[in-house]
């Protein structure tokens, strides 16, 4: 079997010889993609930013309070992302915004389901941090072929519905957390009472020893050894009680005044300029595809005409 050597000049000559065919295919690709992209509907977007903040302390918190605050922020971020991207939230937003009466959803057999699915496909949620984890935020971006006021209206309803649901869940969690902290506080108070009682008993035992000088000296020495340990334990318990009282105060303020951790940092915006479709990119990709298609057609024509 004879092996044919590859000659690059032959390939170049084929391309040069069929350059008219290649140009025609490229121009046809550019023209057809221009017509196609011209009739594509404009796409707009609406963006909003949610700010998630932990406890605001008047003074710099200690390590335990900082860890607790970070745990609250992490819990809030997970909970918020879960609710914002839930199917229930999409359905509630579609119904509240009245998308079942807007085209193209109104023409479908199940307009509410189609609208909820559309929100799910077109809503982008990204999370980020501010100030090394002290605060977190969500950026929501809703894009589509609907008019800018409608997009902004849908996003605004979705955010408000989600915040309402998150706030309701947070109230329950605040109540559970307060009960847990109160139980821990009662336990620490009981420990503190036992330590104080032990300290008083040791002092009473020392004061009662008066007849034997040697025994009195020994008990006094043991009391001096154990007293610093008792004092350090009492100080540690007092520090924990102060931290718990501070957290309980913050939780009580949130529960009584209905202050939420989530705020709308920037409300949903309306883009006046379309963000899509990217017509120039579509035409450029079509031109590249047309170029490769033209080269392939040139070699195919050359192989069909010439005998093997």
Q: Give the assembly state of these chains.
A: single chain
Structural class: alpha+beta
Radius of gyration: 36 Å
The span between the termini is 13 Å
What topology, given as strand order, has the largest sheet? 2-3-1-4
The biggest sheet, with number of strands, parallel, antiparallel or mixed sense and barrel status, is:
4 strands, antiparallel
Mean pLDDT figure: 80
Number of domains: 1
Low-confidence stretches: 210-225
Shape designation:
elongated
Element string (H = helix, E = strand) = HHEHHHEEHHEH
Name the helicity range: 55-70%
Strand % is 5-15%
Total number of beta strands: 4
The total of helices stands at: 8
How does this model look, in words?
The structure is a single chain. The chain has 308 residues and is an alpha+beta fold. It has one domain (44-266). 67% of the residues lie in helices and 11% in strands. It contains eight helices and four strands, in the order H-H-E-H-H-H-E-E-H-H-E-H. It has helices spanning 8-17, 19-38, 63-84, 87-96, 111-122, 148-208, 213-257, 279-305, and strands at 44-53, 123-130, 135-144, 262-266. A four-stranded antiparallel sheet has the order 2-3-1-4. Strand 2 and strand 3 form a beta hairpin. The longest helix has 61 residues, at 148-208. The two termini are 13 Å apart. Mean pLDDT is 80; it is low at 210-225.
